[in-house]
Specification:
The structure is a single chain. The protein is α/β, with parallel strands linked by helices. The chain contains five helices and five strands; from the N terminus they run E-E-E-H-E-H-E-H-H-H. The protein is about 45% helix and about 25% strand. Helix 1 (about 45-65) packs parallel to helix 2 (about 80-100), helix 3 (about 110-115) packs across helix 5 and helix 4 (about 125-135) crosses helix 5. The radius of gyration is 15 Å and the shape is globular.
């Protein structure tokens, strides 16, 4: 069975995305990157930043036609405002996935890190390193993109959409 999985690491400033294809228990890299809100955030209000995430995810879905998606669950930060903003970014991504009728599974950051590194408390560099190895990449993806690829692999490991 072959399935194309879109992984998403939500963030208001940078939402990571990564698409892999799983075929016969092997993973193949397709694309990854980050959807960035305006670098000069004074020129982009919250609703525009949410729209940027929705539009970016929509464009990725239209271009690459994934079969399913995986998104990281929100964790509670020390700062409640940060948690709320992260939740809004995640909501924009979920809205885009729902709009395009993609089935979605959610995993915690701990589950995603555990799936690719064997350690739920792994740092970003460890996740990046394992993504390079697991997908046989020539270059190291940005940390948000690596986290998104890790989410997609986690989903593939759990055979979520079989």
């Amino acid at each position: 069975m072959t399935i194309k999985i879109l992984g998403i690491d939500p963030g208001l400033r940078s939402t990571g995305f990564g698409i892999i294809q799983k075929q016969n228990n092997k993973y193949h890299y397709i694309v990854s990157g980050c959807i960035k809100s305006d670098k000069n955030q004074q020129n982009q209000n919250l609703s525009q930043r949410i729209g940027t995430i929705f539009d970016g995810i929509s464009q990725i879905i239209q271009q690459y036609q994934p079969d399913a998606a995986c998104i990281e669950k929100v964790f509670v930060n020390v700062n409640p405002n940060s948690t709320l903003l992260l939740g809004q970014a995640r909501g924009a991504a979920l809205a885009a996935l729902s709009f395009h009728k993609l089935p979605v599974i959610e995993f915690s950051a701990l589950q995603i890190k555990q799936a690719v590194t064997g350690n739920g408390k792994a740092d970003k560099k460890q996740v990046q390193h394992m993504i390079v190895r697991l997908l046989n990449l020539d270059a190291t993806p940005q940390s948000d993109a690596a986290d998104a690829l890790a989410a997609a692999i986690c989903c593939g490991n759990h055979n979520c959409f079989v």
